[in-house]
Amino acid sequence: MISIGSNVAALGMLPKDLAFSGIEALEGDGVRIVAASRLYATPCMPAGAGPDYVNAAVVVETALAAGELLAHLHAVEQRFERSRTQRWGARSLDLDLLDFGGVVLPDRATWEHWRALPFERQREEAPDQLILPHPRIQDRAFVLVPLAEIAPGWVHPVLGQSVTELCAGLTEADMSGIVPLECSESLALLAKGR
Q1: Record's InterPro entries (predicted)?
Q2: How many CB atoms lie within 10 A of CB 124?
Q3: Which of 25, 53, 115, 152 is 20 to 30 A from 141 via CA?
């Protein structure tokens, strides 16, 4: 499962077009999209760090290993002029590997370390290895809402809660400002055509 985000224009495209084009670009190199959520307008996190986002989620099938899939995601980001100059900075395209068949990488203790990292340190520190599942899934409405649309029964491999249960735990404040975009019907058609 992959989360998609964009909050700045690039290559002559607006964030919603970049998000959709980024999803299309995931196909190939051993990756096949099997489900895609609608696009959602979402508030920037953390507040004030940049323009608001367009977010979505996809489920893919692949024969790639987790590290190879992550490399594929980074290559797609680069095609859309992704810059990694600032942690949580504005980005043309952000592709996050959320889950890979329920594996916990590199191990549960490392995952727990990154999940429990205080917010202030999250802004400054990033892991130098692949951490799965993504340690912030459960905290981010902009990830959970699109994910619930396409994989409501997915169960977090460490927390043991489904996406539906995790969404039910979100507050009204968490959900504020998350709105589906009208242009999103094309994503459903994209996924059905696979």
Answers
A1: Hppk (IPR000550), Hppk_sf (IPR035907)
A2: 9
A3: 25
Separation of first and last alpha carbons in the chain: 16
Looking at the annotation, which residues are catalytic? 82, 91, 94, 96
Q: What is the mean pLDDT of residues 151-167?
A: 96
The answer regarding whether domain 2-192 maps to CATH 3.30.70.560 reads yes
Residue 124 in tokens: 């400054």
Nearest to 42 by CA among 184, 181, 190: 181
pLDDT digits (tens, 9 = 90+) for 86-107: 555 578 899 999 999 999 999 9
| Average pLDDT over all residues of the chain | 88
**Residue 120 confidence (pLDDT):** 79
What is the arithmetic mean of pLDDT over 145-153?
95
List the chain domain ranges.
2-192
What is the pTM (predicted TM-score) of this model? 0.88
Tokens of 79: 């095609």
Question: Cα–Cα distance between 81 and 78 in angstroms, integer?
Answer: 5
